[in-house]
Design a protein that fits this description.
By secondary structure, the chain is mostly helical. The chain has one domain. It is 69% helix and 0% strand. The protein contains 6 helices and no strands. The longest helix is centred in the C-terminal third of the chain and has 28 residues. The two termini are 19 Å apart.
Length: 118
């Protein structure tokens, strides 16, 4: 994606995925990648994502408005703290949001192939 906001977008990506945090950066990167793939309707599960996290990530990527306190409680029971849950949620939202942004911009530019990848 090459727009006038490329530098800002990259700073956001780096801040969410690569900055120090409660969760390992490789986990956040895997979550972001898997979330983007869910948004493209890919069905495979991410190998690097713990099973306790996978269902939550899919829900955030596809149906964020359906997340509940029970989803968060399940992550807590799996041993994740508030900061880790926030980092994983942001990573999933970033992956889903960026792919939608890229597809939307492609549609505006008339790139039908990029906009209709399903």
């Amino acid at each position: 994606m090459h727009t006038r906001y490329t530098a800002h977008t990259q700073r956001l990506i780096d801040a969410v995925l690569n900055s120090p945090g409660e969760t390992d950066a490789t986990l956040r990167q895997a979550i972001e990648t898997q979330s983007a793939q869910f948004s493209l309707r890919a069905s495979q599960e991410g190998e690097q994502i713990p099973p306790a996290v996978a269902a939550y990530i899919k829900k955030v990527a596809l149906y964020a408005y359906k997340t509940t306190d029970e989803d968060i409680e399940a992550l807590r029971k799996a041993g994740y703290g508030e900061d880790a849950i926030l980092e994983m949620t942001l990573s999933a939202a970033l992956g889903a949001g960026m792919i939608r942004l890229e597809r939307g911009l492609a549609a505006l530019k008339g790139d039908a192939d990029a906009a209709q990848k399903d």
